[in-house]
């Protein structure tokens, strides 16, 4: 029994520190614009507020909870977008937690009045910590055993730098984001090798295809958006690909997560989840989306119960004197 408890506690502690090698993810990635790429900052008429919440693998006790809140706005007079994003996550039985606040700046310029280029920078201020009262150490199970408890610091602060760029037209767009340029140390154990947060590279793009109207005074906007998002961090990489159908105000979508042409270490197809989305939106005002990830990996749906995600976007513009026409991209967002 004691041996079982000891192995369990060792696993918990290892899990808590190793899992930080990867960033958390959103299935509704285009409903988390400042999280996917800082170059999305200000890609709105004037003001935008975004809220994202994700509960991943809820049947695994305290597996992964994450959330984001962001605000950004377009400053037309200086061809810029500014914003701030706050991220929080809670994971592992040891209650490992992390909070980040990051200001974002993007600059934009046009080429031939048709192509919009948006380079951007994000500077994150992070605090990572763990609730040690949730952990079980060797000396609590057997007398005379050494413990690493005294070497564990309750929290660590670090800065984190990211950059990104977007290239957009009226119908197509693509982007590149590079996160953790400075590969910060996030180890919570003193006198131990550094626990480096690896650089993450994100490549994303898509296209929006308007559909013909059925006609009549009550006809509504209809379109199909296809998009893909590839992420690579250390030894891990992943692809989200799919799309959604918009028949204002209803939005329906389906996504596949995995790398079907790449096998994992066990030789099985690298498949993670199917994501199903339902939402409502009013263009330029608000959107509300709910998605569910159906686990299709070896981890299995019966063990994880999948993942649930909610997104809310609110956009607004204040009344002011007539402004010059802006180049607004309607497609690169949910």
Question: How is this structure best summarized?
Answer:
This protein is mainly beta.
Describe the structure.
This protein is mainly β and 334 residues long. It has one domain (2-316): Porin (Beta Barrel). 7% of the residues lie in helices and 51% in strands. It is built from three helices and 15 strands. It has helices spanning 2-18, 33-36, 301-304; strands at residues 47-56, 64-75, 80-91, 96-107, 109-111, 115-130, 155-168, 172-179, 200-210, 222-233, 236-247, 250-263, 269-282, 286-295, 307-316. Strands 1-2-3-4-6-7-8-9-10-11-12-13-14-15 form a 14-stranded antiparallel barrel. A hairpin with a 7-residue loop joins strand 1 (47-56) and strand 2. The longest helix has 17 residues, at 2-18. The termini are far apart.
Q: How far is it from the N-terminal to the C-terminal residue, by CA?
A: 51 Å
Q: Indicate the percent of residues in helices.
A: under 10%
Tell me the strand percentage band.
over 45%
Tally of helical runs: 3
| Low-confidence sequence ranges | 1-19
Order of helices and strands: HHEEEEEEEEEEEEEEHE
- Which architecture per CATH? Beta Barrel
* Major β-sheet strand ordering: 1-2-3-4-6-7-8-9-10-11-12-13-14-15
Q: Main beta sheet, described?
A: 14 strands, antiparallel, barrel
Question: Which topology does CATH recognise?
Answer: Porin
Q: What is the count of β-strands?
A: 15
Q: What's the CATH H-level superfamily name?
A: monomeric porin ompg
Radius of gyration from the alpha-carbon trace, in angstroms: 22 Å
Structural class: mainly beta
* CATH C-level label: Mainly Beta
- Domain module count: 1
- Note the overall shape: globular
- Average predicted confidence as pLDDT: 83
């Amino acid at each position: 029994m004691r041996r079982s408890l000891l192995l369990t506690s060792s696993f918990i502690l290892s899990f808590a520190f190793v899992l930080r090698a990867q960033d958390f993810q959103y299935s509704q990635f285009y409903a988390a614009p400042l999280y996917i790429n800082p170059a999305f900052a200000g890609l709105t008429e004037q003001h935008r507020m975004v809220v994202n919440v994700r509960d991943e693998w809820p049947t695994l006790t305290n597996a992964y909870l994450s959330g984001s809140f962001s605000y950004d706005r377009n400053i037309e007079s200086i061809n810029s977008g500014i914003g701030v994003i706050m991220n929080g996550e809670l994971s592992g039985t040891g209650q490992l937690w992390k909070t980040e606040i990051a200001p974002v700046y993007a600059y934009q310029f046009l080429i031939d009045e048709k192509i919009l280029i948006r380079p951007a920078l994000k500077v994150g201020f992070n605090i990572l910590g763990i609730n040690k009262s949730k952990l079980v150490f060797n000396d609590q199970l057997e007398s005379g055993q050494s413990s690493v408890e005294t070497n564990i610091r309750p929290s660590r602060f670090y800065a984190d730098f990211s950059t990104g760029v977007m290239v957009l037209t009226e119908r197509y767009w693509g982007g590149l984001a590079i996160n953790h340029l400075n590969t910060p140390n996030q180890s919570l154990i003193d006198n131990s090798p550094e626990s480096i947060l690896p650089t993450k590279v994100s490549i994303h793009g898509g296209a929006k295809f308007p559909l013909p109207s059925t006609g009549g005074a009550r006809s509504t906007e209809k379109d199909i958006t296809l998009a893909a998002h590839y992420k690579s961090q250390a030894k891990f990489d992943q692809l989200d690909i799919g799309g959604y159908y918009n028949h204002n105000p209803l939005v329906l979508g389906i996504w596949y997560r995995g790398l079907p042409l790449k096998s994992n270490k066990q030789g099985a197809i690298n498949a993670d989840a199917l994501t199903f989305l339902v939402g409502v939106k009013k263009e330029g005002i608000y959107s509300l989306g709910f998605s569910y990830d159906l686990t299709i990996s070896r981890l299995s749906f019966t063990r994880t119960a999948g993942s649930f995600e909610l997104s809310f976007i609110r956009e607004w513009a204040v009344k002011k004197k007539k402004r010059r026409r802006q180049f607004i991209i309607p497609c690169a967002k949910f």
